[in-house]
Amino acid sequence: MTALNAVADLTVEDEVAIVTINSPPVNALSRDVREGLMLGVEKAEADATVKATVIVCAGRTFIAGADITEFGKPHAAPYLPDVLDRIENAKKPVVAALHGTALGGGFEVALTAHYRIAVPSAKCGLPEIKLGLIPGAGGTQRLPRLVGVETALEVILSGTPFSARDAKQWGVVDALAEEGKLAEGAVAFAKSLIAARAPLKKVRDRDEKLAAARGKPEIFEAIRQAHAKKFRGFEAWEKAILSVKNAVDLPFDEGVERERAMFMALLGSTQSKAQRHVFFAERAAAKIADIGPDTPTKPIARVGVIGAGTMGGGIAMNFLNAGIPVTIVETSKEALDRGVSIIQRNYENTAKKGRLTMAEVEARMGRLSLTLDFRALAEADLVIEAVYESMDLKKLIFEKLDGVAKPGAILASNTSYLNVDAIAAATKRPEDVLGMHFFSPANVMRLLEIVRGEKTSKTVLATVAALAPKIGKVGVTVGVCYGFVGNRMLAERQREAGKLILEGATPAQVDRVLTDFGLPMGPFAMSDLAGLDIGWSAETSKGESIRDILCEEGRRGQKTGAGFYDYDEQRNAKPSAHVETIIRAFAAAKGIAQRDITDAEILERLIYPMINEGAKILEEGKAQRASDIDVVWIMGYGWPVYRGGPMFYADTVGLNTVLDKLKEFQAKFGDDFRPAALLEKLAAAGGSFSKA
Ligand code: 3HC
């Protein structure tokens, strides 16, 4: 074995050269890896005893793509296109041997090899779109040559990896190796190529699969239309379609050149920077300062959920999906029946869409037990309380739970606002208590705010943090404060939205500004969806807010056919002239002058106070890092990923711009806009939240 450089070595076995890349964690295409590939192929070419070359990776995966940490920094030779040219133009066959995830630039390396072999568990894909990019090393030119434009665009626009079996069926890989025996299989395959004097097959030379799309621009137009809604606001996807179209319309080298130019332009875009930020933010969120791999965790084999409402049911589904049995406790049979039928219906709907088999629906429902007997919670390793927001009720429940739960069980509250320390104090084991705040719909939204109480033990926190990915969630650890991270910031936005409609904006204008920004819904559409009467009561209502007036009139949101908007049978919203009259009259009665408000002011009034609140959250140590706040907003509230989260967005706008605007608003509208000390400090130092 000869070392080629720090991350690559070369072995010659009979007539086969084996280039092994070993650059943990994922063999990303750093300069060293690029150099290792280049040197490996060159050495193999120069060795007269070698007749074929195998490229294989050590560790968990074949090359998982370009090294994202290198993006935005000056690049050093050898450059990827040159390495790929070297592989493709080798005079002896090169075989790429795939395991783990051959993604992005890694898959593109494999596509320049003359042959590909994979173990059945391997996956291939071009996930660049998820980073606001298009494949930049020939992926949009070579993949359609192997699988045709429609399948290629499906792979590129979804960014989702496909299995080695699909790859074999599509002709992307030439052979499957036995699981766990990739290197041996690849060497045997290479020997068979030598024996057969197999040709140097170059993907670039094939174009029979492109023929079907030649002279048919309508194919691309149909794909564009099919994806337009999903990609609203995103830049990269149309470039991906264009680049694949170039594969059909242009000579190979020109197609590659244009692909590279588009890739480089996107690499410098704010959108791609934002999406790369989110990639790392999601991974950083899992890291908790004082918790490491040595922190012990507890096994969670059975979960209890208190409350079969919308939240309780959604929470239970996460565990049932992950194979963990759940017991739901309720106080009445009706509530239990209602809850279980919602879960059942949810699963059946997924099955109808073909995303779940009926056997799997049954298996999941089979893991669910229902009871009116609180004592059944004694068996649970983790109990999650999901009743309505009342501190008195929660205290009662936790006191009772303390008497029933087995020693060492984790006791969690799904409260969205309340003080977890006060809830913990209702038990004699506050170290076992924490908040697990799920976001509605709880079986869909990926965010889990893990609320660390003052006394929560490290083991309990580590256990829940490790559990989050197992149930498909991204856990973000937050401190105890009213509304935690997400809802605390949301309250700022809601307050301003309420003020803006009194000052002259319409609910539809406010909502449109936010949906134009990229959020799925504005505050008024959201209130209508949730129901305006949540937390409202007819007995105490005194017509003191627009909400009071609407609820008193029976306009309680979508469910009543009217709220801030009017709704038709299909629940399509239409602005309501009647509501606008109510708002105008209310403003007049309060002496609030109405004026035309620009979209720009609406956006700044809604978003900048949220950023300011985020800064206070950081100052108080209620979030570990600014990027955690971004993850909360992206995973929990549908903040557009191409804007990177509110704190990253503030960085792109410039902290001084945000600060100046807040000061201007403070002078005009009062202390709701008083800038956070941290924002003042960072802005003065020319800093940013990302680097704070
Ligand atoms: N560059 C740099 N670091 C990377 C990386 C990459 N491409 N991919 C993963 N990492 C790092 C992660 O940040 C993480 O670091 P940490 O341990 O310090 O937090 C570590 O590798 C392990 O990653 P995961 O925690 O995500 O491990 P998993 O086993 O869950 O997943 C994976 C592995 C499927 C490879 C996943 O990491 C992934 O999807 N990576 C991104 C792949 C990608 O997007 N590739 C395309 C890049 S763009 C490109 O190739 C352009 C080309 O067309 C020119």
SSE arrangement:
Layout: E1 2-5, E2 8-13, E3 16-21, H1 31-46, E4 52-57, H2 80-88, E5 94-98, E6 101-103, H3 105-112, E7 115-118, E8 123-125, H4 139-147, H5 149-158, E9 162-163, H6 164-170, E10 175-176, H7 182-195, H8 217-227, H9 236-249, H10 252-267, H11 270-285, E11 303-306, H12 310-321, E12 326-329, H13 333-352, H14 358-366, E13 368-371, E14 382-385, H15 391-404, E15 410-413, H16 420-424, E16 433-438, E17 447-452, H17 458-470, E18 474-479, H18 486-503, H19 507-517, H20 523-530, H21 546-552, E19 565-567, E20 573-575, H22 577-590, H23 599-619, H24 626-637, H25 646-653, H26 655-669, H27 677-684
Parallel strand pairs: 3-4, 4-5, 5-7, 6-8, 7-10, 11-12, 11-14, 12-13, 14-15, 15-16, 17-18
Antiparallel strand pairs: 1-2, 2-3, 8-9, 16-17, 19-20
The structure holds 3-hydroxybutanoyl-coenzyme A (3HC).
